[in-house]
Write a structure and sequence with these properties.
CATH architecture of the largest domain in chain A: Orthogonal Bundle
Number of domains of chain A: 2
Oligomer: homodimer
Distance between the termini of chain A: 33 Å
Structural class of chain A: mainly alpha
Shape of chain A: globular
Largest interface: A-B, 33 and 31 residues
Strand content of chain A: 5-15%
CATH class of the largest domain in chain A: Mainly Alpha
Strand order of the largest sheet of chain A: 1-3-2
CATH topology of the largest domain in chain A: Non-ribosomal Peptide Synthetase Peptidyl Carrier Protein, Chain A
Number of helices of chain A: 7
Number of strands of chain A: 3
DNA sequence: TTGACCTTGACCATTCCTGACTTTTGGATA
DNA sequence: TATCCAAAAGTCAGGAATGGTCAAGGTCAA
């Protein structure tokens, strides 16, 4: 079994045991326990605990630091938001993103204010400093993170 | 729990008990009571009781010295969002941005869900593709765009 | 053979904690 | 009154405890 799989399995088990869908760990401790370098933990988190898979990851550095992983869904596609998150690829245009948000609002899944905020965050207006060639990637990433944050 | 957290919790409790949103303490006394060096109190004040978080700290040295902490309310009337937008510069760190949003939520100016969405959009988690050196610029830009979108 | 996925380690960034040294203030004293 | 002293609070640099990033190279299945 690959290291990556072991680490992922370990974290999933932590989530199960926790019961509340939330697990907190210390990167160095976990790396030590599983016999890998600490940065491997980051690799696992970025490749296996993404919004697409229904996870939200938060962390804090420094003394008393931690990594917190939240599971926002139990099964694929259980939330209309997850459906969108999974449908969005690695990149998305401003127009498409806008259409998605407006559709969510029309369906009554998000309020007018949330729609406004999300549209603002997905518009190129805010992307002036971002190299043009990665804007659509950033937009897709932001859209997924925001939608995932709304689940539960 | 970290010393820092304990001290912060203690001060917040003092503020609650006071009722008038104002607490006064003696640095050395508090340090003694909580078992830390006095300068630790300063660290907590500068890291957890900042204007972004809605606090004002005043103090006096020498005989009869004191530290006074006040919780300030954002004016509801004249668009508090515009006030914040104007206060944000061209760049902002994840921590400061988070403090601002949490303060807005604490003051009842934005809902829990909007707070969630904005925090997700301001977290480095969503900035993976953005070069590190421009992340804080993008964050500031996004924050201002989102807040502006809330002004009716 | 090649491209996607995995692994490692060197270097970076942030947060917390401490203690030595500094500054300010009010009151005691010459 | 002019000085000095003691009692506050402030500053700062350094070290420890965390997590983050990135580039280089390895593995493996199609």
């Amino acid at each position: 079994m690959r290291l990556t799989d072991e680490i992922a399995a370990y974290i999933l088990q932590m989530l199960e045991l926790a019961g509340d869908g939330e697990a907190e760990l210390r990167r160095n401790e976990l790396a030590e326990a599983l016999g890998c370098v600490p940065s491997q933990i980051n690799y696992v988190l970025t490749s296996r605990f993404t919004p697409e898979q229904g996870f939200i990851v938060e962390s804090k550095r420094g003394g008393g630091g931690y990594i917190r992983i939240r599971r926002v869904k139990l099964e694929r596609g259980v939330s209309p938001f997850m459906h969108v998150v999974n449908a969005v690829g690695d990149e998305i245009s401003p127009v498409t993103a806008q259409a998605i948000i407006e559709n969510l609002e029309d369906q009554g899944l998000i309020s007018r204010n949330i729609s406004r905020v999300m549209l603002a965050a997905l518009s190129d207006q805010a992307y002036r400093d971002i190299p043009i060639n990665i804007r659509d990637r950033v937009r897709a990433s932001l859209l997924k993170q925001m939608l995932t944050a709304l689940i539960t």
